[in-house]
Design a protein that fits this description.
Layout lengths: L4 H20 L3 H34 L3 H9 L2 H9 L1 H30 L1 H12 L4 H10 L2 H19 L5 H9 L1 H15 L2 H5 L10 E10 L4 E10 L4 H5 L3 H11 L5 H15 L1 E2 L1 H8 L9 H7 L1 E2 L1 H14 L4 E9 L4 E11 L4 E5 L19 E9 L1
Parallel strand pairs: 3-4
Antiparallel strand pairs: 1-2, 5-6, 5-8, 6-7
Length: about 400
């Protein structure tokens, strides 16, 4: 059985210290040295978690009291530059905060261990002197489990940070298909470090958007021969089928936009309604992932059931914008869901009175503001406009 590359790394990092502990048996002096290494590893892991969390709360979200206060102390132009350039955050700000937290935690843990853990280790060694070698080896392996867990978590955090920076397709594929990595991300990494999107939409960890091109033959009456055309299907339907509207949707969309006198207010109102009222269909996402297209996709079924996946959200937004005379696009590409980059669909809408196109992602709206947000490109890439109306 072929083992996933990322899964293999996590397995090796877990079993290495345990095997080492078994081979070298339990030793108080060796374990004290290992404890110092473990203190360093734990301090680094905890400091990394806190550094990412605190830095993001200050420079990305800055919507809580103490974090808002710190953010307000930073010069406005510098704060905006950091917010719009995540590489500065991850390669400058977070390492500085990480170093400070690391030193504080390491000194604290070393003090605690000298008072409590080290005397216990000496007592354990005295107890094991009369025991068999195999018993000492088993104890040596058991005492290495905390280090093994720490190693695995550290690797998972580092891989997750690397994956944010639009990694190449091969590595992204390994990350997406590694079950241990995905589990660690969903249960530990995402709740601490990433956006609310991954918490709200756990099923988009898997690709739930498929684009298929088919060569189909259509009769040609003039010469009695067939004409071959390439038809593109999005989750089993053509684009025109997907964005097709009806009187009910048009009337409802116009009602939503009534009383709003500029394009931004209209477009944002439609975005807010879809994001708040359409539920993400986990079952449909799973079926699409398994190439089951015996499902209804597009604006009409999404409005009727008030559920769908990214293509459905985007189609409904197109239909509602068109009902209000707003120029709109459907865009395909990749979105970062906290674990890996997956196939995704979103929109762009033209604000005529402002003379510009703005990016809109109604699917991700449950995780934050994705209407004309300056950070949009941080978790969206490889955009391709597939339709404009």
């Amino acid at each position: 059985m072929k083992v996933n590359f990322i899964t293999g790394i996590l397995i090796i990092m877990f079993i290495y210290p345990i095997i080492k502990g078994f081979l070298f048996k339990f030793s108080s002096n060796d374990l004290k040295y290992d404890m110092q290494q473990l203190e360093s590893n734990i301090s680094f892991a905890v400091a990394l978690i806190l550094a990412i969390y605190v830095s993001k709360e200050i420079f990305i979200r800055h919507d809580k009291g103490v974090f808002r206060g710190i953010y307000n102390l930073v010069p406005a132009n510098m704060a905006l530059f950091i917010e719009n350039n995540p590489s500065i955050l991850y390669f400058v700000i977070i390492p500085i905060v990480l170093f400070i937290f690391y030193k504080l935690f390491y000194v604290f843990l070393e003090l605690i261990n000298k008072i409590t853990i080290y005397p216990i280790l000496d007592s354990v060694e005295s107890f094991l002197q009369s025991k068999s070698n195999i018993f000492k080896r088993v104890c040596g392996a058991i005492f290495q489990v905390p280090k093994a867990i720490c190693y695995v978590l550290l690797i998972a955090f580092l891989l997750n940070i690397i994956s944010m920076f639009k990694v190449g397709a091969p590595l992204n594929k390994y990350l997406e298909k590694s079950k241990p990595y995905k589990y660690l991300c969903k249960e530990i990494v995402i709740p601490i470090t990433n956006s609310k999107v991954a918490k709200k939409l756990p099923s988009i960890v898997n690709n739930s958007f498929k684009v298929v091109e088919k060569q189909e033959t259509f009769p040609n009456i003039s010469n009695n021969q067939g004409k071959v055309k390439t038809i593109i299907y999005y989750n089993g339907v053509t684009l025109e089928e997907g964005i097709r509207s009806n009187n009910q949707i048009d009337a409802f969309a116009k009602k939503l936009a009534s009383g709003k006198y500029d394009d931004r207010a209209k477009a944002k109102g439609l975005y807010n309604w879809i994001g708040s009222n359409i539920s993400y269909d986990n079952d449909k996402a799973s079926r699409v992932l398994n190439n089951d297209f015996n499902i209804k996709s597009g604006a009409i079924p999404t409005f009727q059931t008030q559920s769908g996946i990214c293509f459905d959200y985007s189609c409904l937004y197109v239909a509602m914008c068109r009902a209000n005379g707003l120029k709109v696009r459907l865009v395909t590409g990749e979105g970062f869901n906290g674990v890996s980059w997956v196939a995704h669909a979103w929109n762009e809408v033209y604000l005529g009175d402002e003379g510009k196109w703005v990016k809109v992602d109604t699917t991700f709206s449950k995780g934050g503001n994705y209407f004309d947000n300056g950070r949009f490109d941080r978790d969206h890439k490889s955009s391709k406009i597939v339709g404009e109306w």
